[in-house]
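User: I'm preparing a small set of examples for a lab meeting where we compare how different chains pack in three dimensions. I only have the primary sequence for this one, and I'd like the structure in token form so I can line it up with the others. Please keep the answer compact; I'll paste it straight into my notes.
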Amino acid sequence: MVPVDEHLITRAQSGDADAFDALLSRSDARVVQIVQGITGNMPDALDVFQNAALKAWRSLSGFRADSSFDTWLTRIAINEALSHRKKASRLRAVPLDDVCGPVLEEATASPDAGLLREDEERGLAAAMANLSSRERTVFTLKHVHDYKIREIAAMLDCAEGTVKNYLFRAVHKLRKHLTS
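Assistant: Understood. Below is the structure token output for the 180-residue chain.
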């Protein structure tokens, strides 16, 4: 762990809210983006992040530095997002831009190209909606945020083989849905 992080964590564990804010500010935008990919929209993502930050503050005394603060916070936020999603009364379709950002190329000058792009976006959004929460989370962390399998396993607190299994199933389901 970086000495600055150790110092901030020690101060935060002693009740220094400014030190905790400094730790949060290093990863808040990235964690919110990950949570948004799970929840499907920014208002829910911000609520989930706030809950995760509060949970991290309350349980900071139990932080053992087995992983970085960033990984620990991300794990808490992912668990909060998955719980939030589970509590949702119905499954919502998520706009492609909310999940993957600008992945597809911009439409060409042809009017038909814009329609094709919209169809592709709807198809991908529908395919992503068919994934389980864990499959979607793993797929987003790996292919949108470029995390390594071992980092995802640490965030989700599971084995690397489990992450690979979720990733395999997600890719298989997406291919099946998009080619049919």
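A couple of notes for your slides: Confidence is low (pLDDT under 50) at residues 102-109. Residues 109-180 form a domain with the Arc Repressor Mutant, subunit A fold (CATH 1.10.10.10).

User: Perfect, thanks.
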